[in-house]
Amino acid sequence: MHLLADDVKNLHKYEIRILRALEKMMRHYTWVPEDILKVAVHLSATETKYRVDNLIHRGMVKSDAVPYKGYTLVFKGYDALALSTLAQKKTISALGTMIGIGKESEIYEVLGFGVIVLKLHKIGQRSFQTIRINREYMPEKTHYPWIFASVKSAEREYEALRALNGKINVPVPIDINRHVIVMSFIPGMNLHRCRLENPDGIWQEILSQIKSAYDAGFIHGDLSEYNIMYDDAIVWIIDWPQWIHPNHLNAEAILRHDIETVAAFFAKKYRREYDIDDAIRYVTDKTVK
Ligand SMILES: Nc1ncnc2c1ncn2[C@@H]1O[C@H](COP(=O)(O)OP(=O)(O)OP(=O)(O)O)[C@@H](O)[C@H]1O
Ligand SMILES: [Mg+2]
Fold it and tell me: Measured from the CB, is residue 117 less than 6 Å from ligand 1?
């Protein structure tokens, strides 16, 4: 279910209060008991029921009657909380169209200081078992694994964007709230959709960015032609939540996988054969500049 500007604009302050209360109480309950919610929001029983029904109708909250009457927040309600906070802070003023959808995220164009981009991290919205193995920051037991993992994923990506800004070409991080990051708009196209005139030069440019990121303490961890954007000879690397540090136990294998994936793309589309070991040496050699 995609997010609409009206979903956020038309939220009543009591509805926001209920969403916030659920967010807080989901640390303790998977299903927040109706009685406890009523007390927490300081509203009459009728008002609470009316507002909760509105939220259920909009797909932001779910209810269950067994083994007790309770409510739970779902992604759309969490999205609404993050977006209403970002709007309140005046980071964003209008929600535009969706420009990308992945397994674990949604990307929207929005208005803020010009046209900017929102990335909503959504880990585990389909099945929690699909979480990739290197997402090792999940605690064993939590009542709200999808909230926890999505916030973590957003925080990790934001951290990489902040650290790498000015060192390599990444979107400029603007703000973060809950599982949503706000960043600058990249004007280019994804690499797999481009027809490069100078593939060798672009391969070199990509390696040079991988090297600068590595020197700054970041290995992408999910690099491919889909996470590289290209605009008029400029290369941008996006989609950073899965980065790892070069000291990580699996750093070498993950770096190799990143480089092999991009090399395989150049081999298939441009019939280029690049030496992977040479590329890895170039990236990891501290003496090369
Ligand atoms: N800052 C940006 N500017 C312009 N377009 C962007 C920007 N960020 C993302 N996009 C577009 O949205 C698409 C998806 O973004 P991204 O790669 O960050 O997430 P994802 O692939 O859905 O994530 P995941 O790997 O978790 O499924 C990109 O391929 C790109 O086309
Ligand atoms: Mg991607």
Answer: yes
